[in-house]
Amino acid sequence: MLRESYGDGKWECPRILEELDRTDELYFDSVSQIRMNSWSQGRIALTGDAAFCVSLLAGQGSALAMISAYVLAGELCRTGGRYEEAFLKYEGFLRDYIHIKQQGAERFATAFAPRTRLGLLLRNLVIRTLAIPGLARLAVGREITDALQLPDYRWPSLMN
């Protein structure tokens, strides 16, 4: 399959394909995104990539993991540990926000992993162009930035 796709490739493709012929081990993966109807079941709740990995292409995994952990902990504290209620509030607060992030990652996936030579050329040109200071924010600002207003939870053990 790789030879079929990259056999006529330039640059390092011939050398890489030769090396692949000499190895017994190869890790091959695809870019995918899983969307779950619920991030919790029973007493277990998922956060971060385990719940809603927007994409390996988005570069937001750490930030979203911190946000989701903060909101889940805050809702557990706010509800006095009533996890069923806390889980509903946690998902209710983040679900639409995460959905928008997932849609953004889906829109940009083909740009980051193009299937054609022309797509590669365009992607590389866009990446070089977006390196110009301020241009990235103008071009894709809404996709990479946002203004999620996090709740101001009152943490009892920290308030004394």
TrEMBL record:
Organism domain of life: Bacteria
Q: Which SUPFAM superfamilies match?
A: FAD/NAD(P)-binding domain (SSF51905)
This protein's name: FAD binding domain-containing protein
Which InterPro entries does its entry note?
A: FAD/NAD-bd_sf, FAD_aromatic-hydroxylase
Q: What span is annotated as the signal peptide, if there is one?
A: none
Q: What is the species listed in this Swiss-Prot or TrEMBL entry?
A: Mesorhizobium tianshanense
